[in-house]
Structures are given as structure tokens and as C-alpha cells.
Prior knowledge:
By secondary structure, the chain is an alpha/beta fold. It contains 18 helices and 14 strands.
Amino acid sequence: MSLVTVSGSQRKLIFAGVSLLATFIVGxxxxxxxxxxxxxxxxxxxxxxAIIQEADDTIHExxxxxxxxxxxxxxxxxxxxxxHLAGTPADYIQAKELADLWMQQGFDDVAITPYDVLLxxxxxxxxxxxxxRGQNDELLYESPEKxxxxxxxxxxxxxxxxxxxxxxxxxxxxxxxxxxxxxxxxFKYVTDTALVNVTGKIAIARYGKIFRGDKVxxxxxxxxxxxxxxxxxxxxxxxxxxxxxxxxxxxxxxxGAQRGSIYVTDGDPETPGYPSISTAYRVPxxxxxxxxxxxxxxxxxxxxxxxxxxxxxxxxxxxQRRTIHNTIGVITGSVEPDRYVILGNHRDAWVFGAMxxxxxxxxxxxAARVVAESVRSGEWRPRRSIVFCSWGAEEYGLLGSNExxxxxxxxxxxxxxxxxxxxxxxxxxxxxxxxxTPLLYRAVYEATKRALxxxxxxxxxxxxxxxxxxxFYDPDFKIHASVTSLWVELARSLADxxxxxYNVSDxxxxxxxxxxxxxxNHGELLRQRIANYSAxxxxxxxxxxVADDFMxxxxxxxxxxxxxxxxxxxxxxxxxxxxxxxxxxxxxxxFRYVRSLWRNVL
Length: 602
């Protein structure tokens, strides 16, 4: 709507040729409402009022009122009806169905982006097993090929047996050495204190504390020829007896095994730094340094109890190039279509993935429906574009999202306002866990207030089913609905606010907290190694001073000047980018965010 307007009643007065006084009054009115604002040099002649319009906070209630828990329940039921491992036909079918749904719902643009990436699968003809051998090499025990079927939900075709993605194939045999959680300090204790040599032996570690890929790196470092990882009942069943586990509760049964990837970086291993499109150069697998060199296999705690001193691992897992698919849906912004608020969740699962990721997928589908329906009805269109992303092959190492970002890195780097990810929407029922960059602390806090609002035992097992979600985690799907409300409100606030709801002062506070933590843990050593280590504190103090001054200036910004608004928004958007080193960290080029160096400096 143009600012240059004259009401119908005023036109009547003009065209009727009334007295000079009436004409003078009309002139005053025209001068007040039609002459473009000149405050602080702003000139909005011919520009729509929406450019300087504040967000309508009542939209939150309108969006939230559309959220339906029963829709989320049905979304999750369909998503978990069959396995959808990355790179399989079932996974592509879900990507295509989602794209079709978003087109039907009136998205402005929908696309499926394929990438050819290196994935990993076990050989169905040669199942992965762990065997127990006797003194004369006789077979005493062999682990089951699949997890036991405990409810009809698991009794479907195409359930991949427990395996570790990117494990090296082969048959290895040797003594078992227990290494607790498989951390470097655990291996160090076994070798230096317990005086047990791990070299040439098979290590057995329990899940937890660190990423499973780091357990493999430690095992290789200490010379192990294989690694077995199991879910300890103390961590995943809390000492429950057989009647207190799935399907009678949410605790992991003794037959459950946790699948997962041990690739320690992100993105397609064959195309580091570049999108894995058809024309990409691919690094030969023999030259990929981040792939494991030893066989690795997951087992249940029921199997772990059967193993004694000697074990044999027969692993058929092999790397295979497969096509994965992202589904991208766009709601175009009305004022700043070139600024993106991105909502993401991965679609692929090791089996059914009722919690990880399908609870998040079900929530995103409802959030997308609510936003698209409000736009289609003419009730609301966001100021900035909202982009919904359903990623492929996240479980293997964030492959789908990583390749998409690599393909569009320049555009995304310049235009993205924020990325909001919900992987597992519901994994318990008592509290909410949110991690965010400091710029978003205040926005998350405010959105959480308005929305009224952990690792779980069945994680990555065949028992992560719709039955478990409906029976134990969120029977009426009200928690899912609350997460949807929070996600939608946070996206709305970032997409609609005239001035982005960032607080740069919070960044300085976080930097100082991180510095104090670093100094308490490693300060003495760092002062010995880094001559100007003390400058870090002064630099953070300077940052805090500038940040506080910036926030004070924000209170007096001329909101009638769209260029002034755009300037401060761009300044705040670029703050996070200032911590990115395009060359990457020394020896770790994949990691470009230098602020994380403070937590990993040693």
C-alpha cells in the first residue's frame, strides 16, 4: 500500500469546490499523510508501508491456533510405518511424498536436490556377527543377525541388521580387552595402570561419554585390531529386569543394539569441501584419511554377557556410492525475499526412527502446513522468506545438509538470517533442551515463553517405533504440539521482526564465560605456550564495550529509514560470520569456526 493516499471524503471536498478553508484543511491532511517522511534523511516516496512496518505479534496466536496434535500423530505414524535408511528407495519415496505435499499446500517453490555420496551398508548375504571361540577354536556362541521381534511394529521387511557405518570389512580374531567408554584416558589407564597391552587385540567398549567415531580412533591409536561397542544396561536400562524394558517401558531390552556412523567429519567423504554433484571430482577411497581402518560392530548387552576372553568378528560392511535426496520448500518473504530463515530436520533413519528423526519430521510437517495455510488464506505472509529443509543421509555424517550448503554456500552465507534445527522433537517428557548461538539466546527465551512449553534408551535400535512413542513418550502428542508452537514462533519472530531480535551483548558475555572456563582448565599451560595469551581477556573486554554501545544505539534507530534498518540487521547477521576462517583450523580444515577452538585448543 502506498503512503501517497487521499481518502474518498477528501476527494469529494476537493471536487465540490468548497471554501478555501476546507481546501486548506485538505492540504494539511495531505501534507501530513502524503509527503514522504524526511526524518533523519529518510525518503520513502513511492515505497510500500510494509517496508517499515513492525511485526504483528497477534500472528503468533493465529498460527498456534492452527496446530493440531492429531496431525502430528498421523505424520509420525506414516513416517515410521517402514524403515527408511538413507540411500534406499523407501527414503526417496518419503522425499518425493513430502515434495508433493508441500506443492499441494501452496508453497511458493519446492525442489528435490539429489547428491551422489559415499554411504555404507552390511552385506545381506554375509551378515555381520561376533563369535565366541573355545580353546580348540570350536564355535561356542554367535551373535544373532537381527534384533528380536518384540511387537508387530518391528516385524516388517527391509530392517537393516545392526551395523556400524563405514566400518572396515574383514575377519579378525583375538583376545577381548574391556576399555570402559573407549576414551583416550580409558585406553591410557588400561595400558599404563592395568598394564594390559591392547595391540593385536579386540577392544570392547560401552556406548556413552564421547562420539562412537572417537572410540574407534582411540582403539586404532592403541593398536586394537577391532572394536565392539555395546549398550551397557547401567546406562540404557538402569539395572531394570526383563519385565521393565521395552515393550513394557522405554528402557532398552537386552536384545537391542545401537546402529550408527563412525565417520568423524561431515559431508561426503569423496568430495571434501565441494558438493557431490555429477561433475564433482572424487577423492579415491584409498586416499580418504578419515575412514576407519579396523572392523567395528555394535552388540546388545545381552550379547555382551555371552562374550569371554576370545572373540571373532566377521564384518561384511562395505562403502557404496548411493544417491540421497533433500526436499526443499520455500515460502517467499513479502518484503525481504532475499533473507532466509531456514528450518531443518533430517528424514533418514537407521530403521524406523520414531524419535530420531521422525518426531522432528512430524513436527516440521505440521509447522510447514500451518505456515503455508496462513499464507494461502491471505492471513499472513512473513516479511522474510522461510525455507523448510528435509535432509537426507544425516545419520552418516550430515551428508545431505552439508552437500546442499557446499553447493549454495555463497548465497546462503550472504542471505541466511538463522538456521533452526529440530532433530529429535521428543525423547522424554519432562524438560526441553535447546542449544543456540549467543545471538539467539534472547529470541529463544522469548519464543519459549510464548510457546508454553538427551539421549534416550531406545536410541538407534529397531525398537525406536511409533508404538514406543505413543505408549511411553507422548501418548496424546501434546509435547509434539508444544515443540511445533515453539519452532513456529521462533521462526515467525526471526522472519517478521522489523529489527532482528538479536542481542550482540550476549555474545560478549558468552565469550568471557568461555574464556574463564578455558583459563580455569588450561590457563597455566597456555601462558607457557602462548606469549600474548593475556590479550584474549582484553580483546573480549573491547568486544563487550563495542557490543554494548551497539545495543544502546539500537534504541534510537530511525525505524522510518529502511536503509538504517537494513544496515543494522546486516551488521548483526555478519557478526557470527566474523568467527569463520575460510582456511579452516590448522590440521583440521573441515572446522572453520574459530570460536570452537577455545574449547578444543589442547
